[in-house]
Amino acid sequence: xxxxxxxxxxxxxxxxxxxxxxxxxxxxxxxxxxxxxxxxxxxxxxxxxxxxxxxxxxxxxxxxxxxxxxxxxxxxxxxxxxxxxxxxxxxxxxxxxxxxxxxxxxxxxxxxxxxxxxxxxxxxxxxxxxxxxxxxxxxxxxxxxxxxxxxxxxxxxxxxxxxxxxxxxxxxxxxxxxxxxxxxxxxxxxxxxxxxxxxxxxxxxxxxxxxxxxxxxxxxxxxxxxxxxxxxxxxxxxxxxxxxxxxxxxxxxxxxxxxxxxxxxxxxxxxxxxxxxxxxxxxxxxxxxxxxxx
Length: 294
What we know:
By secondary structure, this protein is an alpha/beta fold. 41% of the residues lie in helices and 12% in strands. It has a 6-stranded parallel β-sheet with strand order 7-6-1-8-9-10, with helices on one face. The chain has a two-stranded antiparallel ribbon with strand order 2-5. The protein has a two-stranded antiparallel sheet with strand order 3-4.
């Protein structure tokens, strides 16, 4: 008969090396815990795709059961949040503008709630509505003028535009250009686009570039329609990170892939909304594109 005496279990934990068998068990448990944490961390970076029945692929499904996308002939990219990291530029400028007009300290969480609303891919529209909701009625033009002081800089102070960071390399763009026709449809003005892209060698690989100066603002599909002309929309793929991008793609009958990384604010709600709007897949980064193409 085995009798458990008080303190025995605790003595094992406190002195794991007293017996060979106990030492083996201790190492095994530690190794299992480390592996579990490793797998749990990296599982957040999976690609979300969809099965043949149109339902989202669920965790645990193998790539063989996921329905890969037909290989398009034409790739159309949004810019902000897809090719360029704008957290330190547009997002910071928006927060600083709201704070400047209202005197209230606002957060990135609040910014994301506003950005997820229809029509607020345009930061000036978003800022105008945001500050007006805080008791400071502000027109679109007033919001734009205030925003641009932070974005471009004023009174000799550098603007946030200098914080802009590209998220793809020249080599990656060259690789895509060998297989697809590349285009851009962005909510930036031509001036904002040129500041970052005119000196980037990869820009020459984009056949058509549509800015907000060239077409109606998203979610209107005119920009996508101008890029495609008379060509079949199903031969293209639009990659964006905003609800307005998804709506523009749906209106133009262009297949859409959302760029949204696990861990982003309101990830589950935004991911669900993208699926409702017909997103063919959700990618944590645009460079994962080849993983979901046939």
